[in-house]
Each structure stands twice: as C-alpha cells, then as structure tokens.
Amino acid sequence: MMNSDVHPREMRGGLPIRALALLIGVCAIWAGNAVFLRYSIGIRSLPPIHVAAGRFLIVAVLLSPLLLRPITNLPRILVAGLLMGACHFGFLMVGYGQITAVASAVLLQIGVPLTALLSMALGAERLSVRRLLLVVGSTVAIIFALGGPGQLDLIGASCIILAAATLSLGSVIMARSGSVGALTIQAWTSIGSAVVLSALAPLLEPEGLGELTAQPWLAAISIVAPALIVTVGAHTVYYHLLKNHPPSLVSAVTVLFPLLTIVFGVVFLSETLRAQFVIGTTIAVLILSLLVIDRRR
C-alpha cells in the first residue's frame, strides 16, 4: 500500500495543465513582488522586519474569521506556518536589503533540491537516483551562476539561503498536514507570523516606525499590496497546490520565478548580468525543469 501523502497519479508524470498555469501566474506575482521589495527595502531603505510584520498583520485581520473553524493537526500547521511565514519572509526581507533581486531569486532556487531531499528524508516522496542526480546538478549550477563564495554579501546571501531552507522544510511539513483549506492555513500562518515578527521588529529595528512614517506612501504600498496580492492571493494558491501535488514537482515549476525576476530586475532596476551568471542560471533552469517532466520509474 502506498503512503497516503504521496499522490500516485501525479507522481507518474508531470503536473496537470491547470496546476501548471496557476503556478506560472504565481511565479509572475512573486517576481514582481521581489523586484518591488528590492527597491523599497534595498534602495529606499524601508525596515524589512517591520514591513514583513505589517504584511502578516493585515492578512491575519482579514482572515481572522477562519481561525474559528475546527482544525486538525494544529501544532503541525503552526510549525509549518511559522517556517513558511515569519522565518521565510523575515530572512527574505533582510536579504533583499543586502543583495540584488536577480541574485536573490537565483539563490532562492537552492530550495528546489532542498525540498526534494527533505521530502525524501521525511518519507513524503520516494525519489529515484535520477532525481537525486538532478538536484545535485542544479545546486552546482546555482553556485556557478552566482560566482561561488565571496562574490555576494555574506549576510545577505546567508539570509536568502535560510529563507529557502525554512520554506523548503515548511513546504514538506505542510504537505503532510491533512485536509485543511488553503485559506485556513494562511490564517494560522499569518496570525503566528504577525505575533512573532511584531515582537521582533522593535528589538531588531528600533527606528523602524520612524523610517516607515518618513515614506508613508511607499511604506503603505510595500505592506498592503504584497499582503493582498502575494500573501492572500499567490501564496494561498501555492499552499493549495502543495496539498494536492508532490512538493518537489510544485517547487520545480517555480524555476520560472528567477527567470521572470531577472527580466524585471534588468528592466525596472537596471541590474546587470554577467556571462557566468547567464550560463549558470540557464543550466540550473534546464536541470530543474527536468524534475517537472521526469517520470517516476
């Protein structure tokens, strides 16, 4: 008998067309959000933890009625939600303040092999030797694209890697959390993340409120737009897909996110590309794309 957390039909092939189309839309929203946050945090110096806390606070208020619904596996959902919410976005926002949106997007793809390996380690999926070789190859390509150690700000790169790792672990845990609606998951993720980040914000960024009020319109857009469009919209779709398809396949499709971010970053922020970056990113995307079409033997 197969593990109930594995989806036999999807495991034999790629993702259904509808799921693939939804993920492409999610990637486009993520890419636009990444470039905008790089501008508001990295260039205009908004406080990253305050921005993340405000974002989750808005979502928590909007979805608070869903907290009244009966729910199973609440401890598991809270842990996964904190990993995918407060931890992921906290590290991500700080990273955007240190390195370019283009570099951040590519470095985040380390989460694809991490998700596959964690999914295998926790028993959510049985990965073939072929897939293991693919995730190793993709990791090497990502490192090559970014120029290896010493080419990026250490704090920024470390934060992005931690953001990828916490998202990967949270994704695998969430995929095994039982039949809970995506918006209900978002509600619990947001309330937990809002509490944690709101407590940390004044400690880590004591001048944060003043920095927000100094640029009120930019601050409002940076908090409200991602809360509604990205968190309530795109991430709810992403969570729904995670619960209905194998985590490694869902994560693999998100290779479109760095490609779109590269385009947006170059066009809107005038970020530059090196030949090594283009070659390495191309190889990484090709390898990761094989994870989507690879058929389980």
Task: Explain what the structure shows.
The chain has 297 residues and is mainly α. The chain has one domain (8-293). Helices cover 75% and strands 0% of the residues. The chain is built from 14 helices and no strands. The protein has helices at 8-11, 17-43, 48-62, 74-96, 101-108, 111-121, 129-145, 154-175, 182-204, 208-214, 216-242, 247-253, 256-269, 275-293. Helix 3 (48-62) packs antiparallel against helix 9, helix 6 (111-121) runs antiparallel to helix 12 and helix 9 crosses helix 11 (216-242). It is globular. It starts with 7 loop residues before the first helix and ends with a helix.
Question: What tags apply to this protein structure?
Answer:
single chain; mainly alpha; 14 helices; 0% strand
SSE run: HHHHHHHHHHHHHH
* Uncertain residue ranges: 1-12
Percent of residues in β-strands: under 5%
The tally of helices reads 14
Oligomer: single chain
Overall number of domains: 1
In total, the number of strands is 0
Give the helix/strand layout.
Layout: H1 8-11, H2 17-43, H3 48-62, H4 74-96, H5 101-108, H6 111-121, H7 129-145, H8 154-175, H9 182-204, H10 208-214, H11 216-242, H12 247-253, H13 256-269, H14 275-293
Helix pairs in contact: 2-11, 2-13, 3-4, 3-9, 3-11, 4-8, 4-9, 5-13, 6-7, 6-8, 6-12, 7-14, 9-11, 12-14
